[in-house]
Specification:
heterodimer, A: five-stranded mixed barrel, B: alpha/beta, four-stranded mixed sheet, 8 helices
Chain lengths: ~190, ~280
C-alpha cells in the first residue's frame, strides 16, 4: 500500500463529511475544504473529555464534523480572525479516538498521530488533514466567519465555529491506513 | 556615562516585537525562495510556495506570520557606560512586551506551568543580559513559538563521545521532531560551556543569519556536514517528504570542564522571527 505524494488533482470538499467523501481521499491528496469547522486545542479537549465523562453533551453536534487544532491570534480591527495556523496534533492524541468514535470525521493539525488515532481513523472512516504550520495569515484568509461558541474563558483556546472557504489542506492519514509522513520520508530519504 | 530613558526602551521593545511577528526577515524570505528551487518534492515545493505567499500576506495585511507569536525572548547587550534612567529596566521590557502583544494583536501564549492559566499579557519576558564595553544598548527580540521549542534538549555527553556523539545527537533530535517543529527548520547547537551555558549558546546560534558560517573552520565544516545529513533524512517541508528539511545549522562553541561535554540543541521553525535595535 503506497500513499500518493503527487499533487495532480486538487479536490474540493465540504463539511459535514460523509463516508463517501472520506473514502474517496488518499494520503497525499490536496483538498480545498469549505463549510463549518470547530477549533479546539489542549484545554478545550480536556473539557470535552470531562463533560463526556460526567454524562454531559459536547458544545456542538460532532457527527460528520471537523475539528481544527488551532488557537488563533486576536482579530485585528476589520478582520474576521487573526492569524490561525495549526498547532501540533499529538497533544490531542489521547482524546481523539473517543471523539472519532462519536462521529468526528476529520481533524486538521500538524504533525504525526499515534497508532491509536490512526486505528480509529480506519475503523470509523475518518481523516486527518495537515494545514501548513506557520502559514497563519494565509489560512486566516480562508475564514469567512468566526464565532466563539464555548469556553470563552479559555481565551485563545476557546471553541470557535469557523466558516471556511477553500481552506488548503493535505490528507495525511486516510481511511486505508496510509500516512503521508511515512510515505514522504520513505521516498526522499537518501 | 550616557543616559537612556526607559520610555525609549519601552517603545523600542514594542515596535521590535510587532515588526518581528508581522514581517518575515529578508534573510528568511530569501532562504525559503532558494529552497523552492532546490526542493525535489512537488508537495514540498507547494508548501514552500505557501510559506512565501503567507509572508507576503502577513506583511500586506499586518497579520502575524504565525498565530503562535511566542514567548517574548529578549537579549540585551548593555554598554557599561550606559545609565538606564526613569525606572526599572526589567519592568520596561515587560511593558514593551505588554504593549506589543496588545496593540499588535499578537497571541498571548504565556501560562502557569500546572494550572495553565494565561498570564494575560504575554509577560514575563525571558531576558538575557550581557554587559559589554561602550555606551549603547542593543535590544534583540526573538519571539519563539512552542512547537519548535518543544524539540530542544540539553544533554551532558561524555568526552569520549566527541564529535560523533554530537552529530548523532543532532540527527536524533531532528528525526524525533519530524514534521512537528514546522520544517524547514534551522538548528542551533551549543557545544561546551556547562549545563546552562550550552542552552544559551544554542539559542544564540539561532540568531546567526541563514548562510553565515562559523569562523572556526572545523565548526563551519561540522555545520555543513550536519545540514547535509539533515536534508538526507527525507523529512522535507512540513514533514510531507522532501530534500529541504533544514535551511541551516549553526554551532556556537565554548570551552568546557575536563569531565564534560555539554551539548544543547534548539530547533527553530521556518517562521524564524528576530529583530534588533541599538539605542
Amino acid at each position: 500500500m503506497t500513499a500518493k505524494t503527487g499533487n495532480d488533482a486538487i479536490k474540493k470538499i465540504e463539511t459535514p463529511l460523509s463516508d463517501a467523501v472520506t473514502a474517496s481521499l488518499k494520503a497525499g491528496d490536496k483538498v480545498l475544504l469549505s463549510g463549518f469547522i470547530y477549533t479546539a486545542r489542549d484545554a478545550a479537549h480536556k473539557r470535552f473529555s470531562e463533560t463526556l465523562e460526567a454524562g454531559g453533551k459536547l458544545p456542538f453536534d460532532i457527527k460528520g464534523q471537523v475539528i481544527y487544532y488551532c488557537g488563533p491570534a486576536p482579530a485585528p480591527p476589520g478582520k474576521v480572525i487573526g492569524s490561525c495556523g495549526p498547532t501540533t496534533s499529538s497533544r490531542m492524541d489521547s482524546y481523539a479516538p473517543g471523539l472519532i468514535s462519536l462521529g468526528l470525521k476529520g481533524m486538521i493539525g500538524k504533525g504525526k498521530r499515534s497508532e491509536a488515532v490512526k486505528k480509529a481513523l480506519k475503523e470509523h472512516k475518518s481523516l486527518y488533514f495537515g494545514a501548513t504550520g506557520g502559514a497563519g495569515a494565509l489560512l486566516a484568509r480562508t475564514v469567512v466567519a468566526a464565532d466563539v461558541i464555548a469556553y470563552e474563558d479559555l481565551g485563545p483556546e476557546a471553541v470557535m465555529r469557523l466558516e471556511v472557504k477553500d481552506m488548503p489542506l493535505f490528507v495525511i492519514n486516510d481511511i486505508f491506513g496510509n500516512d503521508l509522513y511515512e510515505a514522504g520520508i520513505e521516498r526522499y530519504r537518501r | 556615562m550616557r543616559e537612556i530613558h526607559i520610555n525609549d526602551i519601552i517603545s523600542t521593545v514594542e515596535s521590535l516585537f510587532i515588526d518581528a511577528n508581522l514581517n518575515l526577515s529578508e534573510n528568511m524570505y530569501t532562504a525559503i525562495k532558494k529552497a523552492i528551487d532546490e526542493e525535489e518534492s512537488p508537495v514540498g515545493k507547494e508548501v514552500l510556495r505557501e510559506l512565501l505567499k503567507n509572508a507576503d500576506l502577513a506583511r500586506e495585511e499586518k497579520m502575524p506570520i504565525c498565530q503562535d507569536t511566542g514567548l517574548a525572548v529578549t537579549f540585551l547587550e548593555i554598554g557599561q557606560d550606559v545609565h538606564i534612567a526613569g525606572g526599572d529596566l526589567t519592568e520596561a521590557i515587560a511593558e514593551g512586551v505588554r504593549r506589543a502583544y496588545r496593540n499588535g494583536f499578537l497571541r498571548k501564549s504565556c501560562c502557569h506551568p500546572f494550572t495553565r492559566k494565561n498570564t494575560g499579557d504575554n509577560t514575563p519576558p525571558i531576558i538575557h543580559t550581557k554587559i559589554i564595553p561602550g555606551d549603547k544598548l542593543k535590544i534583540t527580540v526573538l519571539p519563539k513559538g512552542g512547537g519548535s521549542e518543544n524539540y530542544g534538549e540539553v544533554r551532558m555527553l561524555t568526552p569520549s563521545q566527541g564529535k560523533e556523539g554530537v552529530m548523532a545527537f543532532i540527527l536524533e533530535m531532528v528525526l524525533k521532531g519530524g514534521p512537528n517543529p514546522c520544517p524547514p527548520i534551522t538548528v542551533g547547537v551549543g557545544i561546551g560551556g556547562n549545563f546552562e551555558m550550552s542552552a544559551l549558546l544554542s539559542k544564540e546560534a539561532l540568531m546567526v543569519p541563514v548562510g553565515e558560517r562559523n569562523t572556526d573552520a572545523e565548526m563551519a565544516d561540522l555545520e555543513l556536514a550536519m545540514l547535509d545529513a539533515i536534508n538526507k533524512t527525507g523529512i522535507g517541508p512540513q514533514g510531507y517528504g522532501g530534500t529541504i528539511t533544514a535551511l541551516d545549522v549553526h554551532i556556537k562553541m565554548a570551552p568546557c570542564h575536563l569531565a564534560s561535554l555539554p551539548v544543547a540543541i534548539n530547533i527553530q521553525c521556518h517562521a524564524h522571527r528576530m529583530r534588533e535595535a541599538v539605542l
